[in-house]
Amino acid sequence: MPRRFPSQWLDELRAKSDIVDVVSAYVPLKKNGARYWGLCPFHGEKTASFSVNPELQLYYCFGCKAGGSVIQFVMDIEKLDFAEAVEHLADRAHMPLPQMQEDPNWQQKRDQRDRLLSANREAARIYHRQLFTPAGQKVLDYFKKRGLSDGVITKFGLGAAVGPWDAMTQELQKLGYTEDELRLCGLTVVREAEPATEDQPARPRRVCDMFRDRAMFPIIDGNGNVLGFGGRTLGDAKPKYLNTADTPVFNKRLGVYAANLLRKARHLDHVILVEGYMDVVSLTQFGVQGVCATLGTSLTEDQARYLKRIAPKVYLAYDGDSAGQHAILRGLDILGAAGVPARVLDFPDGLDPDEFIRRDGPEGFENLPVLTPEAYRMRRLAEEHDLSTQEGRTEYARKCAELIKPLEPVEQENYIQQLMVQTGFPRDVLLAQVGRSAAPQPAKPRPAFERQPRLAQKEDSAAVRAQEIVVSLLATGQLPADIAAAEDFSDPLLRSLYQALTDGASPASLVESQPTEADRERVSRLLLAPPSQDTNELIRMARDCLNTVRRERLQREIADLQREIPGLPPEKKEDAMRRFMALRAELRQRTGGA
To answer: Which residues contact 491 (CB under 8 A, 6 or more apart)?
Structure first.
């Protein structure tokens, strides 16, 4: 949670963002009892298992276990981080963010951002219209030569920057945008006047378009805003690709090209990251899903974290030339540091993705070899060493051993076999190099007393399940606050939930505060209210569960004393025996009342 918001403000935001209304914009819901049900948007299903509780402002899928608050739903469905989801809901509810409330200029800044985004949107429309004019014929011919259909040209909003040196500036000024606004959003370049010097004459002030005589690729974010542009020259002008510089609405290190299409994709197994805009457009035209590109820069940590929200894996599909191969190594490092599982698509003959799919089609692309990071790095290491020499094979084997050492033994085995073939070293030597023994380790005999912990574990799980039910019942708000106590909860998470609920925390806020996805799923499941609406029935259920929990605790305490008493000194043994008898009496009482 990179940005913190006041808890009271978040409570107000949740209250104004009715979860049923928000979810209904994505999922048709049908009311059944106190809840609403629909098909889960996070996994494919034919029978509705997705539940929304309007009273607790929580959702939960009994199929894929996804669950949380309205903020979490927006995070997952729109692939946003926490702060972005909060901003999304705040904008929907017309609530200024806390820092905006404290900033007297926040409305002015928001108005400026809206104006710059509006100017970019109008520019994208003009570029697209120009593509289908006689002046834009050259650019249109270029797109057609690359095999693009009218449909995909429209889908990506491709265009042409043509006409006089200040054509776009003039068009947008006619629509009411100022020169300063156009300069701020990167569409106009202003070169101030310079006085004459001994070496050069005076230069008058000049205003011109940033993009001229280029094929245009609008850069659109997940919300459909045009943030900037990439322009490809069709002649000899440098650079070949010109991108909008950072502006108040655009930071090329944060997003990716085609983010708007990624947002619409559902159930992606992986994202395909390519180098160029044309690669994205071409692969998409051939039906490949989940394709995007960085924005004129190498992959950044921010982009890696963004892609992690889109899909569980990233496939690097960079060009087959040396520059692309070097970028793959850096990309693997960035993705690895961000905790994103990565793979590498292996293009033959030095081709880039666009060239390959136009040559071999979607079926060829589907059958491309998919390399693990270790397999790709080993291939690069093999290129760097002369494997025809003993010295080269030795150094190659040593570096590969270091590379695969962190892997699990079962994963190492495939690479060990490959190294045996490549280097000629026997298996036991290579295993020793990665720190493993070739001899199988004999199984350790299991002591007889191991059965007792397994039994205790089974008993503990029953007690924990009873504690979970008590927390679920407390979430209804229908139980008396003093029905349970903190010591009734041996599970740390359940104890913290009990304390927070009795202190008045909302179930939705408790879900959002969980540090891991597993905890969030568990808490979402627990805090959804049970079906009974009868308060007396809920109280009876809670007391039954607490009776189970307390009996389990008494049994553990009695067992602990039984082990301790024989070894106690005489002066402590008498007190321990009294404690033992009292616990036995309490247990008999609870057992009799069960």
So the answer is: 464, 467, 468
Closest CA to 217 of 304, 151, 155, 287: 155
Q: Which CATH number fits domain 106-191+205-243: 3.40.50.1240, 3.90.980.10, 3.40.50.970, 2.30.30.40?
A: 3.90.980.10
The pLDDT tens digits of the residues spanning 503-544 come to: 888 888 888 888 888 888 888 887 775 555 555 665 676 677
* pLDDT at residue 446 greater than cutoff 50: no
CATH number of 7-102: 3.90.580.10
Three-state DSSP state, 454: helix
- Spatial contact of 329 and 291, defined as CB atoms under 8 Å apart: no
| Centroid of chain to Cα 539 | 40
Instruction: List the domain boundaries for the chain.
Output: 7-102, 106-191+205-243, 259-371, 376-433, 456-592
CB atoms near residue 64 (< 10 Å): 15
What's the rounded Cα separation, in Å, for the pair 264 and 593? 57
**pLDDT, mean over the chain:** 85
CA geometry: angle 247, 248, 250, nearest 5 deg:
55
The structure's pTM equals 0.71
pLDDT tens digits, 37-60: 999 988 888 888 899 988 888 998
At the top level of CATH, the class of 456-592 is mainly alpha
Nearest 10 degrees: CA dihedral of 294, 299, 305, 307? 40
Provide the pLDDT for residue 465: 77
With cut-offs at 50, 70 and 90, classify the pLDDT of residue 103. low
For 123, other C-beta atoms within 10 Å of its C-beta total 30
In this model, does residue 462 exceed pLDDT 90?
no
